[in-house]
Write a structure and sequence with these properties.
alpha/beta; 324 residues; two-stranded antiparallel sheet; 9 strands; globular; seven-stranded mixed sheet
Length: 324
Amino acid sequence: MTATAPPEPPPGGTPAPVAAAAWATRREQGSLLALRLMAWIAVTLGRPVARLLLHPIALYYLLFAAAPRRHSARYLARALGRPASWRDLYRHIHTFASTVLDRVYFVRGQMQDFELQIRGDAGCDETLALGRGGFLLGAHLGSFESLHAAGKSFPGMHVVMVMYPDNARKIHDVLQAVAPDFKLAVIGIGRPGATLAIRDALDDGKLVGLLGDRVLGAESARSGSIEIPFLGRPAPFSDGPLRLAMLLRRRVIFMVGLYQGGRRYDVRFETMADFTAPPTDPAARERLIQATLRDYVARLERLCREAPYNWFNFYDFWREDLPH
């Protein structure tokens, strides 16, 4: 649901499980502050004026958020295949700010403000028709909130997000202030009974949304992160969402809403895995999970090269600042 704006990354190594939630909360504060500001601007001044104000906001972050700027430069160099210029860095931050602004209009139902291309394979329709729910696996790439627009193309689509509950509550409060009818259905990570709540949501025919391109300490403690080549350098990814999908025997649908500038979004749904009848052999199940995770990373890498300014992880994703 959220994207990480320019706060400083945590010092030192991988956070301990007890500190993981606090680490995540610190990293999301930039997104929350940006959302509050954008929500006020969006409603008070309207989108045309609000978009003009994105330029000084993006410039401020470019000049004064040194650590996020450094991480943006590293990522863009890999995605673009060349050193990132100041223009590239500015465009990266401005793209993020644009999606934060548009989040407000999506939850207010102002779809007429956008040009939306929505496409996908038959897997999403079939998953909804079966009434058994499924997993919607995304990334901090583009706008996950464009899902609100996509819902009009998929009757019966109801999404429950899995995220940190404190962040969810704060974000919900901001968005509900500008869209009173907006309800954010959330299952809190780390809360007792979270897995049962996910199962119940699936049994009700809902899609459970997760963002799979981030590994926190609590996840590492439970299942361990896996180093997979991503844009030319190994990076940590978690197979936790896929293991849960296999445990609950559900399909996994990859979803992305790429911002293409101005009023244009490209929303895509692609069936990535079908775990409704997993192999009985444990080794075969393990191979399937690992193959699916690598497929997820490969899709993410292709999209980062296709739309490089759409990836919003402004922190030390490759853990290059950690002591070796």
